[in-house]
Amino acid sequence: MKKRHIVAAIFAGLCLSSLAQAEYIIKFSHVVSPHTPKGQAAQFFADQVNERLAGRVRVEVFPNSQLYNDNKVMEAMRLSKGKTGIIAAPSLSKFVKFSRQLQIFDLPFLFDDINDVHQLVDSPLMQTMTNPLERKGLKALGVWDNGMKVFSIKGDRPLRNTPADFKGKKFRIQSSNVHAAMIKSLGGIPQKLPFKEVYTALGQGVVDGQENAWSNLYSKKFFEVQDWITVSGHSYLGYLLVVSAGFWNRLPADIRAELEVIIKESTQKARQYAAEADAGDRKRIAMAGKARIIELTAEERESWRAATRKVEKEFEKQIGKSLLKQVHQLLGH
Ligand code: LMR
To answer: From the CB of residue 125, how many other CB atoms can be counted at a distance below 10 Å?
Structure first.
């Protein structure tokens, strides 16, 4: 073996052993592909921790539901003990059991665009909405973007007119009652399914369509089994970064402080990755020439908004009237 190879091997060995000997282990479990905004941000977080807290904390990333799906991960987090913790970033839509207020993110047409979302996420109201999690054993660490959602469907025509184009069609949704009410108000039939099952369900016709951000349509190839995509931007897909509160509180204060810094940086990275995927994955889907992409006219968008307006009323009590009022004030509409 050449000298530089020996040196490289020793260096790699040292790195591995310092990783292996970390005092605390964090398993980062998520359900999407490594090349999505969440996948990239999770890897950025892991790389930074593994470098800056080498020997003290090691992060291992498990993408594609390899370790847990989004329901199971919440339970696993709450039960985690000792020096191994779990971090996950399920979509905000999956937290209703922990905070009814977070359902606000699922309301259709609440946000005009991603800047509206950032205004809310970066405001003190976010803390109000995530506070209830702590009593249930979870600590919220940040919100990571994916992007505004689009609708897709298989069939002979795109989704333009409500309720006509939705009638009799089944749509896969996440485990959110707000989403279910939204699909019904548009004229369709909602069906809750875990993310892992969506591609097969679309391919086999178990459901006709779905709603998601561009990166998920692209990375999980939904666009290959759908005929039309409607750029509706009707609501936001974002993630709440969470950790077991017990594990978090057991960490030494200096480690927690460094993790907080890294999380802030990762959140900025997530915004950057999401903006890139939003444009890039849309382009890649358009170039693949499978599903055709259509934009709603201003009138069509307005009719979707009008059809779904009752959803907010339906969930007003659960979310909280005063919170809703504050959010509308903040967003200026
Ligand atoms: C979904 O279930 O559609 C999303 O929450 C998946 C994800 O994590 O982006």
So the answer is: 17
Give how many domains the chain has, as a whole number. 2
Q: How high is the mean pLDDT of the chain?
A: 94
Closest protein CA for atom 6 of ligand 1:
195
Of the pLDDT bands very low, low, confident and very high (cuts 50, 70, 90), residue 11 is: very low
Half-sphere exposure of 245 (CA within 13 A, CB side): 11
76: in domain:
yes
Dist. CA 116–CA 110, nearest whole Å = 9
Q: Domain range holding 246?
A: 2-91+133-145+239-275
251 lines ligand 1 (CB under 6 A): no
Question: Are the CB atoms for 148 and 215 separated by under 8 Å?
Answer: no
The answer to whether residues 174 and 256 belong to one domain is no
**What 3-state class would DSSP assign to 123?**
coil
Whether 195 and 232 share a structural domain: yes
Regarding the beta carbon of 245 and ligand 1, being less than 6 Å apart is answered no
Q: Are 286 and 214 in contact (CB under 8 A)?
A: no
> Measured between alpha carbons, how far is 11 from 15 in angstroms, rounded to an integer?
6
Q: Are residues 323 and 211 in the same domain?
A: yes
Same domain membership, residue 222 and residue 155: yes
Q: Which atom belonging to ligand 1 lies closest to the Cα atom of 172? A: 3
Tokens describing residue 309: 């307006």
